[in-house]
Batch of 2 targets.
Target 1
Amino acid sequence: MLDTAIRNATIVTAADRTKAEIGIKDGRIIAIAEDIGPAREEIDATGLLALPGGIDAHVHLEQPQGGGVVMADGFESGTRSAAAGGNTTVLPFALQQRGQSLREAVEAYHAAAKGKCYVDTSFHLIITDPTPQVLGQELPALVKAGYTSFKVFMTYDDMVLNDAQLIEVFDLARREKAMVMVHAEGYDAIRYMARRLEEAGKTAPYYHAESRPQSVEREATHRAISHAELTNVPITIVHVSGREPMEQIQWAKKHGLNIFAETCPQYIALTAEDLKGLDMDFEGAKYVCSPPPRDLDSQKAIWEGLRDGTFDIFSSDHCPFRFDDPKGKNVQGARSSFRWVPNGIPGIETRLPILFSEGVSKGRISLERFVALTATNPAKLFGLYPRKGSIAVGADADITLWDPSREVVISQALMHHDCDYTPYEGFEVTGWPVRTILRGQTIFCEGDVIGAPGTGAYLERGTSQAFGG
Ligand code: URP
Ligand code: ZN
Ligand code: ZN
Ligand code: ZN
């Protein structure tokens, strides 16, 4: 007999939608049919969509910061918030600090996450110190052990890689078949802009946006694409914010380069105007992230890109810092210059509702495209497919039951994170997750997280489909 039957749902995949029953046994989907027979647990999903559980491929949890700043979410609260937002898998980063061995970094993150996660997780690595030891031994061994992706930064004092280092990392990624995620913003240009703005007394959070204009992102995107062409490796440009970097990606795709791209909720739901706060005050710090949100023209461009395949995945870039906290946005110095405000905003719980509402409910993208961007493509890009990312016989029973017509006003009071605000306060959405099912077990239902920390498993990943697998 089946463990669980989900009846009367409309099942949506990246390819199509069908009305059928879903039969679950031992955590996996074993039947999709008109009539699957009896089950121990009955779930009536009349009026709901059955979507593959959301896969958030870009999440920062418990990542150490300089200057005494701490992230608002660790693995427990971050994955709890993810479950409440309709997600069953998240991919946080394991950051190598300069001078640290990668292996050591990875072990520290495993220790921090152990027994804490409500949803399945798997780490991307962040390479900040690509020494011969790291490139020659540690990384190849880690890729073979299932850490098949890593992120590199083209900016930030304590993380930036120069072009020679980027090329070495790309070259290794080709040899080992690992997916590189690139944070594309030009370091020197940002430093120049920040200095000039500060000299002119322009220090409010809003000037964070002026210090990193689209040209800075466009240039770095172009440079990363050129290095990827040179080394003949697929890469993913992450958190693409607007029209200008998008045009570089479109150029690359048109020329047959194997370039993938990600965008995030902040680039369709916020603009640089939000960084002005109430009156160019510190309230704007709530929206400081990098790249910064742009303007309405860029939002329009992002929608075109979400439709036409310029973007492959849609992730949150959840990177939460408490607002009213000297260990968060209000750290020492932050009120004297935007340069000290920690970069990043929370969004793991609001990613799916915002894309669904602004995209599907408003007719900008299809349901199938929504599923592709938020579950199927991330699974394929990061070596989790076909176990994750679709509703199919043999796959893990990771399913989100979604009410497409529920109207909700997003507010901090609804959130399950440990941050003290949401940048989407007051945002009205149509469409909301009702129930999140992880490997057959309900972990979230009607507003309540009912799973336990430790329900989530750690996933060793395979090779990205970008390598033709
Ligand atoms: O501002 C952001 N996005 N902070 C998080 C780190 C990153 O660059 O993704
Ligand atoms: Zn980044
Ligand atoms: Zn980011
Ligand atoms: Zn990020």
Target 2
Amino acid sequence: MVHAIDWIEDDGGAAVRIIDQTVLPQEEVHLDLRTVDALVDAIQRLAVRGAPALGAAGGFGVALAERQGAREDWSPAELDAAIERVALARPTAVNLEWGARRVDAVRRAGGDALAEARTIAAEDEAANRELSRHGADWLLARTGKSTLRAITHCNTGALATTAWGTAYGVLKELHQRGALELVYVDETRPLLQGTRLTSWELAQDGIPHVVQVDGAASSTILRGLVDFAVIGADRIAANGDSANKIGSVALALAAQRAGIPFLVAAPMSTVDVTLASGDLIEIEERDESEVLAVGGTAMSAPGVRGFNPAFDVTPHDLIGGIVTERGVVEPTRTQPAFPSH
Ligand code: MRU
């Protein structure tokens, strides 16, 4: 299984090692990030991405800042500022700040930052495997079918996590049970996480799939070509409203109309009970050039402006189930979905 993020120590010292997701699947390049600047840059240009992987990046980022600070003789204030930059490098996935704050609390108490970051990574893999079993059970029970056709959006596999995957993990679990017929993969404009990353992972796992343009998603659902939709999440509010990659809400609307299950799969580290509802979730807006150009070539007339929200929020009443390592909650029936951690 591919590792999106690791900690290494070699002759050059300590580094956060990532697989550069901006060049996949054409090139498999590993980057060793040895400074906070390099890590923050990698997070912001999505070389490492996906909420749970960002949780690990936040955790390892604190250990990296600690090492760099010792090497460069930083003051305590400089170290705090560096950790803050890691925690806030991207705003929507709560896991990033959660991972950084959790490891920073251990560091401040005189504990082992690196060991805590490794624990976050290990816990994430265990949570993903557990939620995948719950999710597969729920889908088979809900649909009453023994083989299922799926639609998914963005990338939620090993690349987006520390291992196994979330929504992708549910698909993999169904595949291993012989219960998955075909996956419709949304390309996921503008950065093509579906085309480039999810289809790469599905091919490696031998899971039958087709890639479609994002605009096909609702029609694929309404034509009855799939039995369920499953997506990941970047932040889930206490009432179950779920932020995920832009385009997700279209699947939820169509799934409700078609009467098929719409499942959100995420570890508890993605649940933010400090926010009562999804309208409080900060949505990252990225540079307009990602929308207006394809592969570096401008597609629109000079001077045209772009709008590039990276995420949307699916209201909880459109969500059939939210599966975490603790099981499935059905936010349409349970209010609030997550009363406390
Ligand atoms: O902008 P990205 O690629 O970091 O967005 C990722 C997603 O939206 C994923 O679906 C989400 O983080 C869940 S990853 C298991």
